[in-house]
Amino acid sequence: MIALKQNPMYRFLLVMTISSTVGLQAWMMLFNNFAVEQVNLTGEQVGMIQSVREIPGFLTFLAVFVMMVIKEHRLSAISILFLGAGLALTGFFPTYAGLMVTTVVMSFGFHYYETTNQSLTLQYFDRYTSPMVFGKLRSIAAASNIGIGVLIFLISSFLDFKSIYLAIGGLVMAAGMWAFTRNPVNKDIVPQHKRMIFRKKYWLYYFLTFMAGARRQIFMAFAVLLLVRKFGFTVQEVTALFVVNNLINYFLSPMVGRCIIRFGERKVLSLEYFSLIFIFLAYAVVDSKILVSLLYILDHIFFNFAIAIRTYFQKIGDPKDIAPSMAVGFTINHIAAVFLPALGGILWMVDYRIPFVAGAGLSLISLMAVQKIRVPEKIVAST
What is the dihedral of CA 210, 212, 215, 220, to 10 degrees? Predict the structure, then answer.
């Protein structure tokens, strides 16, 4: 771990991950209140902005073309600058159109950083180290979520929305400017392809990535809705669950990385998907407030196991394909975000249990698919 902390790229990604997490979490915590209290948006307008927020995630494949003219670590820094700028400017444009534009700017920054973060981690850390790095960065992100939540809670009593957006956005931009002055690159790293990569041999990675995105959308769109609609969770109770989740993930995320190294991607992902089948089914039938809280926490824990999909690609992929493949993978992951919340909403109106049963079905399909994971023999032998 000492050697890891001395790695320039690790320090770079650590600062960028904290900045990205702080920026996105601040936006999410402030958005609904700002939209209602300051901009007076309708539910339809709020839904439209939330849908538009996912478009940059769907367009992350364009990062491949951006990297033809900008080095990848520079794109990471610029992305954080965009995220911070979108956040800082939000309070200056308290209109529907203004909030739409600043949200898109913020979202482009967040999503393009996330794809470069994954790519740089896989390029700069070998297959025995990258799971630990992913786990550690997830852990730091969980701590950052708690930290920004506490900060907003403390300053919201004496600062208005405009000042809060400007202050936090300014801090994120400062981190981006710092990163832009850094040069953490290693000249021995394999050069990346500067074009779109879509190979037949990566089909399982693409499929698992899509399925992970679909399941995640079901959880994000309907789990909290279930807590509020059926069980009557208050804002304070949802916030308490948020804090508990992040505290647990702070300690468990590095352990997930170690489990991937020790047991391999197939076993770790099998455990995730097997568990999610029962978690989703339990969402559909549970009547206990305590049990549904436990399900929500377990759902968050198993979400961290998805880093094994990326480390699986590292073991089967051509080193030159990492950057373009992570960009394509991020786009695939967001395909479900375009249509699934709306479709799930229609099904929810028929019977709230249908989306969760569908989530269990997706988990079962993923469990069967993950059994096809095969790691090259030379990697197994060296492990």
Answer: -110
